[in-house]
Design a protein that fits this description.
By secondary structure, the chain is an alpha+beta fold. It is built from five helices and five strands; from the N terminus they run ααββαβαββα. Helices cover about 55% and strands about 15% of the residues.
Length: about 240
């Protein structure tokens, strides 16, 4: 065989070998690319899920932040109101009973301002009671000027004195009725003297605690009295947010 024939045979074998090598490399490359594509698709799906979860978390945190800011504003408003209660707490006309959050007229402490089992204020305590109402009305007027959007609940509570031997049942319905009538007698006296709390964003509630109630005087006879509570009314924030 001629040398040229050997050359071409060898050349053909070489080209065939190279072809198979390239074919194998092509198949391996395609397989690797397909594997990487699937891997990338999996990573993309995971990233989408992670992004979605992060978006939900961010939205939840933003809502919590908004609620927290609302609560902070509400607390700041209440703290401001508490500071504005100081003049009444320091007033020479009232004593603040911290344990039960009530005010009692200073000049009526230890005094039996009602006759036993009666609901009429004794004559000697009428002007003191009127002066207490005037001071209270002026205080609520100043509170409205400082907080025109704030409203308050004014509770006028009547009390009854039990017998010295505590022989009357503390849940006696007669005691609740009479103590209510005592609170009503105080309110009617203030109304008669043109003392009107309702002009100042105030809702008035008249009630009686009978022979019950917090901060009762240790001297049982001195519980023939009345006390007041002033409660700032706060709006339900969840209801406000739905408006």
């Amino acid at each position: 065989m001629k040398k040229s024939n050997f050359f071409w045979v060898g050349y053909a074998d070489l080209m065939t070998s190279l072809f198979f090598i390239m074919l194998v490399l092509f198949v391996v490359t395609i397989s690797f690319l397909q594997f990487k594509m699937k891997e990338n698709e999996r990573i993309i799906v995971e990233n989408k899920d992670l992004f979605r979860n992060n978006s939900t978390l961010i939205s939840s945190l933003q809502n919590k932040e908004k609620q927290l800011n609302i609560e902070i504003q509400r607390l700041n408003r209440l703290l401001k109101i508490e500071e504005q209660f100081k003049p009444l707490e320091d007033s020479p006309y009232f004593v603040y009973l911290d344990q039960c959050k009530k005010f009692v007229a200073r000049d009526l402490i230890g005094k039996q301002i009602f006759e036993s089992k009666q609901t009429i204020i004794k004559n000697e305590f009428i002007e003191v009671t009127v002066r207490a109402g005037e001071v209270l009305e002026n205080f609520l007027k100043n509170m409205q000027n400082s907080n025109p959007d704030q409203s308050y609940l004014l509770v006028i509570e009547g009390n009854m004195a039990n017998e010295l031997d505590k022989s009357i049942n503390i849940n006696d319905l007669w005691g609740y009725k009479k103590s209510y009538e005592r609170a009503l007698a105080v309110y009617n006296l203030w109304q008669k003297r043109s003392i009107d709390f309702r002009k100042y964003n105030v809702e008035v509630m008249i009630c009686g605690s009978g022979f019950n109630g917090l901060c009762r005087d240790k001297e049982e006879g001195n519980n023939k009295r009345f006390s007041i509570q002033i409660i700032p009314k706060t709006e339900n924030q969840s209801k406000k947010n739905r408006k």
